[in-house]
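Operator note (shift B, R.M.): manual run for GDYXXLXY domain-containing protein requested after the automated queue skipped it. Running by hand, logging everything below so the morning shift can see what happened. Input copied straight from the record, untouched. If output looks odd, do not overwrite the archive copy; leave it for review.
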Amino acid sequence: MKKSLLWAGLAGLVMVCAAQWLVLFSQIWRYEKVVSEGKSYYFEVRPIDPYDPWMGRYVALGFEQNRAKEEGEKITESKAYALLEEDEQGLARVKALRAQKPSEAEAFVGVKVGTLDKEGNRRFWLPFDRFYMEEEKAKAAERWLASSKEGEPIVAEVRVLEGKGVIHELFLGEKRLGDVLP
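Run finished. Output pasted below as returned.
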């Protein structure tokens, strides 16, 4: 009796551990799928370089556009979908916000939304606002971004697939951050 209980407990522990690993690997797989198959969109950003003792160095990104008009049904939840489009310079912008999930033919990402302003635009927060870096490269990146010429745009390349977005790279003008750092 005691032996069968021990085996049942051990089997339960193995199943819980396997489920945790499965969740972890599925998240990594989804991230890698967005990076490898997603369409690139380029967002103009304002970087800030904070430090998180648990997560390490990252570049926090403030996106230039943070308000858009609602389209379709009125948004009543704190989550919505941002429809993406590219402007004449090839930079991404949010065309509109929707309460309902768009078709897969449209480029979109899920966003958190806030209140309406006087012009009827709703505030939103994009889900990708941190670009994590290796510790040794973070200081060099901070100096590089600080030494940028006034007016030279800082652009984040974001890969988008099926409503998910992943920051892939940062650019200062035409220079890729990964090419400049040691």
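Quick read of the result: The chain has a mean pLDDT of 81. Residues 1-37 form one domain.
Leaving this for review. - R.M.
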